[in-house]
Each structure stands twice: as C-alpha cells, then as structure tokens.
Amino acid sequence: MTTVAEMEVGDQLCNLFGFNVNPNVTDQPTGWGHITCDGSVANLESVWVARNLKFYPLSIFSAMKESGPLAFAAGTFKMKVCVGEEKLFTEFSTWELLNIKAKDILDIPQRLYDQYHISQKFLEAVVQEYGIQSTSKEALEKEFNLGPMRYYLANSRHYSWPKAGAVTGIGSDNMVGIQLDHGARIDLEDLRVHLQESLDKKQAVYAVVAIVGSTEEGSVDPLADIIKLRDEFQAKGLSFLVHADAAWGGDFRPGDLIPLPSEQESGDGFVPDASLRAKTTEDLFMIRQADSVTIDPHKAAYVPYPAGALCYRDGRMRFLVTWTSPYLARGATTATSIGIFGIEGR
Question: What is the value of pTM for the model shown?
C-alpha cells in the first residue's frame, strides 16, 4: 500500500510542476516521480540519470559495430543530429553522439523495436552487455577517447552537488560553479561564456542546474532564460539537460490556472497581495519545461518528517538507471517494482 501511495504522490508532484501524467495524451511526454529520503538523494539520482543518458548513444553505437548484436541495423538506422540533419547513426561523430537531444535518445529503443521487431529480451541483453551500468563510465571513455564532461550550476549550489559528482565518477571538479549576479542568482552572461567555451572546445555538458530557492538567500535562478539558452545552444550543436533544484522553492510554483503577472491587464490585482516578483513567478512556472526536478516536501510543504522527491518530465528517464530500456515497461510497470528506479530499495 505504501508503494501505491508513493506513486500517487509522484503524480501529484508532477501535476504541481505542470508535467503531464496522462499516458493518453500523446503530444507530451508522460511524467513520473518518486519519493526519496531527502533532496540530496534526489539530486544524486538526477546526476546518475544525466550521466547515463549522455552515454546511452555511445553504447548503442558500440553494439552496431561489425560483429555487434545490433550490426544488422547499421546500414539502415537513421537519426537526427542535434542541429536537425538526419543521417545514418553509424556515421555520427563522437561529438554528435554526445549531443543528441534527450527525447531522441529516449526514443531509440522504441524505434529499434518498431523498425526491426527485436524482442524485449534481446534489447535487454544488449543493454546488459554494452550499457554504462555494466561496462562502466571509464570503459566507454576509453573506447571513444573522451575527456571530462561538465555540469554547470550557480555558486550558491547545495553541497550535495559536488558530492553527487564524486559518487557518480563525474568528479566534483567538473561540477562547475557559475558566478552570481547581484540578486544571488546564476549570472546568465557567465553561464553563456562557459557554454560557448564548451561548444568551442567540444567539451560535452551533462546538464545545467537552475536553483529554485537557494539555501542561504532563497534566490530563484532565471529558469526561463536558461531554457532559452538550451534551445539556442542546441541549434549550435550543444545539447544538455536542464534540472531544477527546487528543494526549497518548488512548492511556490503557481498553478496552471492562475494567470501570471505578465498575463494580467495593467492595474489588476494578484492573489495573494504579497505576491512573488513577476520574474520569479515566471521562472517558477517554467519548471514545466525542465527535464527533471528535485523537491523537499519537508520544507515549504511542511511535511513533518524528512522527505525528498525527484520528478521527470519524461518518465522514460527513470529506466536509464536500470538494466532495461526506456520503452520496455511503459504502461506495464507494476506498483511493486518502483524500487528499481532509484538508489533506495523498497
């Protein structure tokens, strides 16, 4: 019964952030969330997922090499690179493999199934043999001659972020801090400089983290602008996830039916009277466009015991920390299997 309750809470939190939870809605991904012991574990899981997502195309590419189990698809399987050009997957450069958009990566297993009718067990065996969960990050880095990849987040970040970098093998040095502006928010120009440097040097980026309520100042990073930066750099060939660390501020997100300050006519009141500043409200609303979100119900939601949660805009991301594939259990995951999708067992 507690697992059923946890799944219901996960849906409620996804609704809070504006994520779709109705699998019958086909023009949006289906969100998914689960409870963790606290926000630090939720942040760690988000890094684990972002790391595995970045390496997933490399594993599939390896399996399509001559004599590999997916070699039969090498001459016909096509995908779009980050900038939109479609070509054979086996003709992708390493840089292009590292910058496939998240949705396109998550679509790979379903596309392989639809195009080649491979069995569920077969694809599981491929993931078991070639996936980062089995082979290790170091093995794939050696095979593809990769240098370190980066996370970008404000210098006001919680201490759980460098810890997550250490635990996942990314390294705390690669959890790169970005300067703050005078409002103790991430400095967008400094972030832009770092992203451009990554693009110029072809140094892949796992994710950019927007802090939604910093621990010391309560500041909210300009998430709407970070989403625009992601779109801008994807058009240049650099793709990365956006995670919202909303452990403290996520519960202040306005509901979808409440008009934002920018949508109200001049002179109209806003309830409550002591509202958040308009820009903060807009940025909270844009959590709906983040790829994943951390929230701590024991903070602004006043839950009287320690609790965290991690929600994904596209629930298929949870399969990246298992030894299965994103399409395999869609619509078929039982309530009793929720523990396979995180660090903590059930």
Answer: 0.91
